[in-house]
Amino acid sequence: MSQFLFPAREPVTTAIAGTETRFPVNRIFCVGRNYLAHAAEMGVAVDKNTQEPFYFLKDASNLVATGSTVVYPPKTANYHYEMEFVVAIGKAGFEVAEADADELIYGYACGLDMTRRDLQLKARETGRPWDLGKNFEESAVISPIVPKAEIGLINSGKIELKVGDEVKQSSDLNLLIWNVREVIAHLSQFYHLQPGDLIYTGTPEGVGPVVAGDVITGSIDQVGSISLTIA
């Protein structure tokens, strides 16, 4: 007889490029406003000298693989894409020095942080949490993880997103306000980072709405590509 009242949730995993081995997902951390131009388009000024990074989380159950078709989510009329560089953590760390942050990285992926923008902005205006706008079913999309051991450290490279054939986002990873080392070191001051954690490092400018029937495609140099169809 099962010891559970109802069936326990199956572990969430994602693909690793070039192998049938799966990457078990623990937590999904997302960095907010980590490109100056995106912060500006959202009506917010970011000063790295006086501010620290901030984060929100998505439940691992909301993760879907590239190539998926997802349903336009309920209770929104302004459903946005956000193309992101994802860092996969492969080693535990707490209060990690910036110089040692690379040791925690297992690999990299392309990600989409799908957002109910109208709900996010409503929450922001009233000083409430962003969960309804950010943390909902099928809101985190990911491509296969490329191991760092195969491609080395990534500090720069083109990041781009298209809706249909139209380029909507085009930037470079070297324009991150807080780079990967800084994000890992800072985040590890507040959390014991664990193997399986994913960090969505922020989106560049050019975010915008999609509607049913749209096909989103994106890519990051050395990392790969990602796609999503809106049902």
UniProtKB/TrEMBL annotation:
Positions of the Fumarylacetoacetase-like C-terminal domain: 28-230
Q: Does the keyword Membrane apply?
A: no
Q: What are the protein's UniProt keywords?
A: Hydrolase, Metal-binding
Gene3D superfamilies in the cross-refs: Fumarylacetoacetase-like, C-terminal domain
Query: Which Pfam family name is an example for this entry?
Result: FAA_hydrolase
Q: Its domain of life?
A: Bacteria
Name the Gene Ontology molecular function terms of this record: acetylpyruvate hydrolase activity; metal ion binding
**PANTHER family assigned to the protein according to its UniProt record, in alphabetical order:** ACYLPYRUVASE (PTHR11820), FLUTATHIONE S-TRANSFERASE (PTHR11820:SF90)
Name used for this protein in its record: Fumarylacetoacetate hydrolase family protein
